[in-house]
TrEMBL record:
Organism, scientific name: Sphingomonas glacialis
Keywords: Membrane, Transmembrane, Transmembrane helix
Superkingdom classification of source: Bacteria
Keyword Transmembrane helix applies: yes
A Pfam match: DUF1622
Protein name: DUF1622 domain-containing protein
Transmembrane spans: 19-37, 81-99
Lineage: Bacteria, Pseudomonadati, Pseudomonadota, Alphaproteobacteria, Sphingomonadales
Length: 130
């Protein structure tokens, strides 16, 4: 396989990965909406269903964003490297990483550095006074 063929293959692979990422985001939105309505109708507790919907929606968006970042990185392999293209890629990755960080914090309900302490206290259970 020559270099031009390899670049064309990698470019198509990046486009496929972008489509999968967008599909996951769209599918995540649809699935979160269906689960929200189903849970709300079954239990009548719309507030709890809403919280679950937000978490499910965030997870779908987060997974889709991860694939889109991967596709951006792969597509730079085929693009001619200029200062402008590298800066653009860096900006896209910073924005998408910030979005991923924000979504993960929203889903988990705490900052990443607080997660270990929270998980440990959940495993140990409530402490008895004494």
């Amino acid at each position: 396989m020559n270099t031009a063929g390899a670049h064309a293959f990698v470019d198509q692979l990046a486009k496929l990965l972008e489509l999968v990422g967008v599909g996951i985001i769209i599918g995540g939105v649809a699935l979160a909406a269906v689960l929200f309505v189903r849970s709300g109708l079954r239990s009548g507790q719309w507030q709890a269903a809403y919280q679950d919907c937000r978490s499910n929606l965030g997870r779908g968006i987060l997974l889709g964003l991860e694939l889109l970042v991967g596709a951006d990185i792969i597509s730079t392999i085929t693009a001619p490297l200029t200062v402008q293209s590298v800066a653009l890629l860096g900006g896209i990755i910073v924005i998408r990483t910030f979005l991923s960080f924000s979504l993960e914090t929203e889903i988990e309900g705490c900052w990443p550095w607080q997660r270990a302490g929270r998980n440990r206290s959940e495993r140990e259970g409530p402490t008895s006074p004494g």
